[in-house]
Secretion system C-terminal sorting domain-containing protein
Amino acid sequence: MLSSQGQTKTISSGHTISQTIGQQSTTGNSNNETVVMQGFQQSLWSSYIASNDKNEIIVKTYPNPFIDSVNFQFSKSISDEISVYIFDIVGHLVYQHKGKTATSILTIDLTKLPRSEYLVQLRVNTMTYYTKIIKI
């Protein structure tokens, strides 16, 4: 371990290494240099998911974990267009879809996504819903 608890260290090659506990792993750019940070997963997803309590519509996600497709069942019919955004663990948008559903169940085929955890955001005019899904 080169550093811990938020400390950073610059090694002889000029690379700066930071390692902390309690931070979500990220990859990005800073000052035109590649920066890779690694830590134990503790993301903001839980705060997004907790915001679902404000929604009038209840959404059930199943199966979760899933293999190829995942279903979102709404407690009320939704006639408006539904926007689906799926993000990987570092926050990159990996899937986007807009459409309507004739029933109260929206099925999304995610066969092409690799096995991982994802954050889902469903948006309708009257609500925004978040959930975590796991592809196995």
